[in-house]
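Quick one: structure tokens for this chain, please?
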Amino acid sequence: MDELDVKFHTEPECILDTDNLEDCPGGRWLPGACLNAAESCLRSHKGRRDEDIALLWRDEGMDDEPLKSLSFGKLRAKVR
């Protein structure tokens, strides 16, 4: 998780719990973890600049229009 630079509010007990595969086929990923996904996505990361693109979109029904974009810096300013 360190390599992904994910910040947990409560650390997971383990990465993959395979103790109860009958009830949860494939296992449980990050059991006990608590994190804010939006916070993790918007946090400053090594190698990520405020000018880097966070979102790309096109308004519905406007398929011939150019894509719109929003940088990490501008998106952070909107959600704070």
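The chain has a mean pLDDT of 89.
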